[in-house]
Amino acid sequence: MNGPGERRGEVQALQGALADAGYVAEPGLAAAVLLMLELGRPLLVEGDAGVGKTEIALAVARARGARLIRLQCYEGLDVQAAMYEWNYQRQLLAIKLLEHDDRPAAAKEQDIFSERYLLRRPLLEAIGCAEAPVLLIDEVDRADEAFEAYLLELLSDFQLSIPELGTVRAVTRPWVVLTSNGTRELSDALRRRCLYQYIDYPDADKERAIVELHMPHAGDALARQVVQFVQDVRRMDLRRKPGIAETLDWTAALLRLGITTLHPDGAARILDTLAALVKTREDRTAFTRDAVERLAAAC
Amino acid sequence: MLNVVPCAPVDFGAALRERIAGFASFLRDQGFGLGGADPLRALDAAVRAGALERDVLRWNLKALLCGRADEWRRFDALFDAWFVPPNRSVFSLADAAGGPAGPPEGAAPGAPTGPSSGREGEGEHAPPERHAASRDEALASMPFDALRPDADALAMEALMRRFARCLHPLRLRRQRPFHHGRRLDVRATLRRSVATGGMPLRLAWRDCRRVRPRVVLLLDVSRSMRAYGFFWLRLARALCGELADVHVFIFHTRLTPVGEALRDPDPWRAQERLHLLAAGWGGGTRIGECLAEFERRHAPRLVHARTGIVVVSDGYDAGEPASLAQALAALRRRARRLAWLNPLLGRPGWHPDGRAMQAALPHVDLFAPGASLADIERALPRLVETLA
C-alpha cells in the first residue's frame, strides 16, 4: 500500500506534467488519468462540446512523450477505414510482375499477402507500436453500434486478426482515450470496460488558469474580465454555450482588435468580436448592444 | 516523465475490504450499471489510492464505477453517504443487497449498524431526489395494473407488429456491401480478383443502407389524459417489443424518459419502475415547457433526420401557447415528421380550437384522433406514409 501522502503526491506530479503540456486538469481528472496509465484501461471522457475532451489525449501524449494516434469516428466508419486494408492496386501490380517468376505459387501468394501490401489504419497502427502510444478514439458515439462492438473486442484483448496474415498481438498496450458527445447512447458493455470521466464547463478559476496558460500576453486584468464575461454568457439561455476553445478564440480576437479592457462604452467593438464566441443565429439575436453593455459592466 | 509502478494488491483489513465491496453493491442498488468484476476493481483502486486518503479514493472510485453522466453527478453524494461517518442516522442500505454492512469510520466491524434500524420503506433507500416539486403536481400515483398481459394486450401487440412491419426502411446515402446490389463495388471486386490472378471473375456489389425510421413517443399523462394514459403506455410497451429504435417519454409538468422501464421484460417489474417514475402523474400539464425541455435536453441526441415524433396529448395546456409553438417549430426542423394524436379529436362537437391546439396545428404534419385501437388502426397508415 502506498503511504498516505504518496498517492496525492503522484496525482499532483501528473497535474504538473499535464500543465506543462498545456492542459489544466482538476485533481480528480489527474487521478483518473493516473489510474488509466496504471491499469491500462481505456478512459471514456464525456461532456459538452468544447470543454476540452480531445485535449486530454493530446496533453497525456505530450506529457509522456508518447506518440498520439487519432481515430476520428463518423457514421458509417467501417473496419477497413479503422483497422487495416490490403493495398489491392499494388497487389495486382505484383501479381503481374510475378507472372514470369518461377517460384512456387504458395511462395508468391505469401509474398502478395505480406505486410508490405498492408495499409495500416489507426487501430492496427496503435497495436503495432514498439512504444506504447496514446490512442485517441474521438467522438465514438458517431460510429454505429456494429463498429462499437468491434471496438469492444479490440479494447479487451488488444489483438486483431487478419485472415491472410494471422493474429496481430499488441507489442505494448496503447493508452486509450475515448471521447463522446452524446449523439447516441453508448452501450453498457463499452462503458463497463472504461474508466469514466465527465467534464463540465470550467469554473472561473480554472478557466482563468487556462486563459493565462494559453495566452500569457493577454494580461491578468483582461483574462479576468474575459472569463467573467464568458461565465455570464454561459448562464444565459443559449442554444450553444461557448466552450473553452471559444473563450480562447475570443480572447485572441479581442487582442487582435487591440481591446485590452472590457468596458460598457466599448460595446460596439465588443459586438464586432462576438462572432468568435456566439455561433448560432438565434443566440446572436440575444446579444443586443444593451445586453453586451450589461455584461461588460458586470465584469 | 512519470514512472508508473504497478503495485501488488496488499491485504488490508477484512473490514475495509468488506466496506469497499459493500459500496459497490450499494451503488448497484442505487441503479448504477456495475458488472460482477467491479467490486474487485474498486478494491484494487482502493489499494492504489492508499484507502486512507478520502479524496484520492473518491476520484479513483468515481472514475472506475461511474459509467454515465447522471451517475457521475450523483456519485459524490452517495460516496459521502457511505464513507463519511454520519452524525445523525445510520444507513441501512447494505442489507438490501445481502452484502456486508458499511460501518461508519471508526466503528468496529460487525457493530450493529444497518440491519437493526430495519427497512421501514423502500422510500428510505432512495437518495433525496433533486427535482423541485412544481406547483400543480399531484402526488397521487397511478396503478399500472393495465400493463400486465391479457387479451387486450395481445390485440395491441398484434397491431404494433403490423405497424412495425409496414414501417418501411428508409434509404440512406451511405452504402454497404449487398449480395444483389445496384452498383459494382470496384474495390471489393479488385480485392476478390487477387485470388484469381487479377481477373475479376467474381463481382461484388453495393447498395444503399436501409434503416427503419426512429420513433419518439411523447405521451401526455396529465389529469385530463387520465383515461388514455394506461392505454398509450401499453401501446408504447408493445411497440418497444417490436422495434428497437423507439424512445418513449411521459410528460405532465415534467418530462420523464420511460423507455428503459417499459423495456423491462418482467411486466411486474416494469410496473414497479413506472410507479417510481410517475410522481406527479395525473397533475396539470405544461406541454410547451415539456416539449421545450425535450428539445433542449434529449433532441440533440435522439432526433435526427430519420426520426418521427409522435405527441399524444389532448392539448389542454396550462402554459403559454407561444412557447408550445416555438418548441414544436424547433422539433419540426430537427425531425423528419411530427405527428400529434389527440384522443379528443373525433368526439362529436369537439373542435381543436383551444389556444394550445391552435398554436400547435401549423407545425404538425399529421393531426389525427387517438383514443382507441380502432382510431390508431386508422391513423397508422397515414403515420407510416408521413415517415416514408
List descriptors.
heterodimer; A: alpha/beta; Rossmann fold; 15 helices; B: 388 residues; 3 domains; 9 strands; flat; disordered N terminus
- Principal-axis shape of chain A equals elongated
CATH fold-level assignment of the largest domain in chain A: Rossmann fold
Per DSSP, what share of the residues of chain B sits in E-state strands of 2 or more residues?
A: 5-15%
Question: Which overall shape of chain B is indicated by the principal axes computed on the Cα atoms?
Answer: flat
Mean of all residue-level pLDDT scores of chain A = 88
* Count of β-strands of chain A: 9
Q: Tell me the number of structural domains of chain A.
A: 2
Q: Which structural class do you get from the secondary structure elements of chain B?
A: alpha/beta
Spell out the helices and strands of chain B N to C: HHHHHHHEEHEEHEEHHHEHEHEH
CATH class of the largest domain in chain A: Alpha Beta
